[in-house]
Write a structure and sequence with these properties.
8-stranded parallel beta sheet; 11 helices; alpha/beta
């Protein structure tokens, strides 16, 4: 079962997105055999987390069984969060909100114990992978997905090394700079059980994101973990509530 950890719906002001709709994503997911995707609405990542979260839940309701919701939390607005059915966890974007991942303003999120997907960007003052290690040391019980695994190729291996002693941190591999060979290297560095597939659709082409993992030089057992097994382990019953009878 293929699960996409990192997706979006909606428009972004300075990025061409040919089809920002939930329906367009589902159509492409059907073509590629992707069972479900975790989404946040880009309006929520940007200026209005409350309305963006409402739109994400609306999309999930319109396409039952296909979307889990990463609720966006804006630390400056203290966005209300919920643990209703359909929630996969919380989405943080320290760079957009200009608040360091290890800032105490995020403590209300980590106190909930929900899985967290956070943008991670090497050398960013807001989301460098070193901050993931700091947060993981404070909250070892919280599953923490490092979105983009540091984003830049010169930082991929460093990101894996920085969180090597924090098993609750998983390396999520979406991004235009990642390659199949790098995914294989990350699996060797961190263990395949610590690597998670995500596409960053609708920002990036869903076909390219899946293709990188599908064609990466990996053992098939490792590929299965990366394409869905690891995320299913992290989500547990949350995934079952989204997939219902389709959960194998």
């Amino acid at each position: 079962m293929i699960l996409d950890a990192h997706g979006h719906i909606g428009a972004w002001p300075d990025f061409l997105i040919p089809d920002p709709s939930a329906g367009g994503l589902v159509a492409m997911m059907d073509r590629l055999g992707i069972a479900a995707m975790g989404i946040s609405d880009l309006l929520g990542v940007g200026p209005d987390a409350v309305e963006g979260n409402r739109r994400a839940f609306e999309a999930a309701a319109e396409h039952p069984g296909r979307f889990g919701v990463w609720q966006v939390y804006n630390p400056h607005h203290r966005t209300p969060l919920t643990d209703r059915p359909g929630v996969w966890g919380v989405k943080l974007h320290p760079d957009v909100h200009q608040c360091r991942l290890d800032d105490p303003l995020y403590e209300p999120v980590f106190a909930l114990g929900l899985p967290v997907l956070a943008h991670g960007q090497t050398d960013s003052p807001w989301s460098d992978p070193a901050q993931f290690a700091t947060v993981a040391a404070r909250h070892p019980e919280v599953p923490l997905l490092m979105g983009h695994t540091g984003l830049w190729p010169y930082g991929f291996a460093r990101a894996a090394r920085l969180v090597a002693d924090h098993p609750g941190v998983l390396l999520e591999v979406c991004g235009s700079k990642i390659t199949g060979r790098w995914i294989s290297r990350l699996a060797a560095l961190a263990g395949a059980e610590r690597v998670v597939y995500g596409s960053d659709a609708c920002f990036l082409d869903l076909r390219a994101g899946l293709g990188r993992v599908a064609l990466a030089p990996l053992a098939e057992t490792d590929r299965d973990l990366i394409l869905g097994g690891n995320l299913a382990r992290v989500l547990g019953g949350r995934l079952a509530r989204v997939l219902g009878g389709r959960l194998a």
